[in-house]
Amino acid sequence: MNEFDTIDDQFASYARLLTEDPAARLKALRDCSFFRPVPDEWLQRISDMAQIKTFHSDVRITSQDDDMKAFYVILYGAADAYRNGKLVGTIETGDCFGEGIFFTDGTITTSATVIADDKIIAAEFSKSVIEALNADTQAMVSMDKALLLALYKKLKGANQKIERLMLM
């Protein structure tokens, strides 16, 4: 067994732990920057709704302009976001993507193609889970703050990119 096999085994073990152990999944979500504003009582309920998904290097998680089917928070790893074939950002551990699904009652399409940089473990929240959260106004008070902070972070990053481009 070489060191790469050990890394693969550790990745698989951690993903399995998050899938099978609700306490470990809750801790992983609590450690995530996205979920910091969410109180423990709501995070427990949200954690119970999460599906743990793994993606390997170069796997396409979403495709630009496809119907958005889920919201993701990366628990481990990083992914690149592409718009019209151009790299527009990196999504790192603790960051989210697919948040537009929270803001529509109908169909919404993805704004970017997201491709795993390396191995990723993500908490996935399906459309039906999002609908259940949206129906619970108290749960959404917590999620709204987390979503607004995530969107602010993305907007701030976009403004910095625009500023750099204007200085060229």
Describe the structure.
This protein is an alpha+beta fold and 168 residues long. Helix content is 46%, strand content 23%. It has helices spanning 3-20, 22-31, 40-49, 127-135, 137-167, and strands at 51-55, 60-62, 70-76, 79-83, 86-91, 96-97, 113-116, 120-126. The chain has a four-stranded antiparallel sheet with strand order 1-8-3-6. Strands 2-7-4-5 form a four-stranded antiparallel sheet, with no helix packed on it. A hairpin with a 2-residue loop joins strand 4 and strand 5 (86-91).
Tally of alpha and pi helices: 5
Q: Which CATH first-tier class would you pick? A: Mainly Beta
Q: How are the strands of the biggest sheet laid out side by side?
A: 1-8-3-6
At the fourth CATH level, what is the homologous superfamily?
Jelly Rolls
Estimated radius of gyration: 16 Å
The ordered H/E elements are HHHEEEEEEEEHH
Q: Characterize the biggest β-sheet.
A: 4 strands, antiparallel
Total domain units: 1
Derived structural class: alpha+beta
CATH fold annotation? Jelly Rolls
Characterize the overall form: globular
Architecture (CATH level 2) name: Sandwich
Low-confidence stretches: none
First and last CA, distance: 50 Å
